[in-house]
Amino acid sequence: MRRALSAAAIVGALALAVSACGGGDAGTAAPAQSAASDPSKITGEITWWDTVRPDSEGPTFQALIKDFQAKYPGIKVKYVNVPSDQAQNQFQTAAQAGAGAPDVIRSEVAWTSQFASLGYLQPLEGTRAVENEADFLPGPLSSTKYDGKTYAVPQVTDTLALIYNKRLLKEAGHEKAPTTVEELKQAALDVKEKTGANGLALNVDSYFLLPFMYGEGGDLLDVQNKKITVNSPANVKAMATVADLVTSGAAPKPAIQDSYANAMTALKDGKAAMIYNGPWALSEIYQGKEFKDKENLGIAPVPAGSVKAGAPTGGWNLAIYAGSKNLDASYEFVRFMSTPESQARVAKEISLLPTRASAYDNPDVQANKDVAVFKPIMDTATARPWIPEGGQLFQPLLEGYQSLVGGTATPEEMLKKVDGQYRGIFKDWS
């Protein structure tokens, strides 16, 4: 997970969900094709929509494609990089139109059940795309299921951590990373006072609000009881904590737009000591001048609120478009890209977390210190609801976050508005 969805994406999702109810070719999954008796003889061209950062992560995945094409010389892979904040809406538009959709898409975990509910994804049971399902970690695997069927294969998993500049914290008198939000605030203020750099750079993105909510025992929904819980006392306290970080000066007032890029630049340039971010960001962070010496980068669990340290679960799956004309080739591609060996290479080169248990036994993965730090954080991360509406939860929360840090809404006002928007999505929930 990187950015919240655009308003257009949410509007498009709602409109397409309604129109898809009427059926159509794009909404009907084709029956699974049997694998060729000799997979190496499969021929055809497939298009893969990838959502990674093209400069820091893209080269690793393109190298894997070359390896795949060497093993399967009859299959040509057309690689298309689509920005992660645009891919959901673009895929839905193409799938609904029945033209222009890729054979394979890198689907954010929250999109997968939504795409499946609309009939846009090919069921994968009994295909070569799913190899040794028992080897996948339970959390990532659960995000691939909808209505009792498998519609994707977990590619990478992720969560959030506190990523920090060891030098700046040490100059401010802190040898270790803060473990609570109170310590986070104090460390950030000390950095500002003693080094001149900002203490904490906030990312105005819904995903990055979740640690504060979870830390106070809050959440967005109670799915089991069909209750909307975003407007709770726990979340009011969490939002007050975020607002206080800004008003106290522990974090500068963030830009409403491009806050992710701004926070990353500030960390890389030594203008901010701490940010919340995930393993996907590490390859880019190491390109910054402050981290040419990788030992200067610190990674720690997100600071705890009054209840717990609560990082969210994120990640990406590989899914196949139901209207693909090259299913066998797509199955082989998804299988290859999700093997323990492929996942180990990704972990070794760009520190993305594998979704297969066996990949963590690979010496290359075990030698990656960043993966070793993130793995226990991932093991205790808070699960998100894998429901078709899951992809629609972040835009209202993003708008609320923007109003909160922009000073136009109190925590109570922010959450009341988000609650109202959620009730427009979950009309029969209490």
UniProtKB/TrEMBL annotation:
The keyword Transport applies. Keywords: Signal, Transport. The keyword Signal applies. InterPro entries: SBP. Residues 1-20 form the signal peptide. Belongs to the bacterial solute-binding protein 1 family. This is Extracellular solute-binding protein.
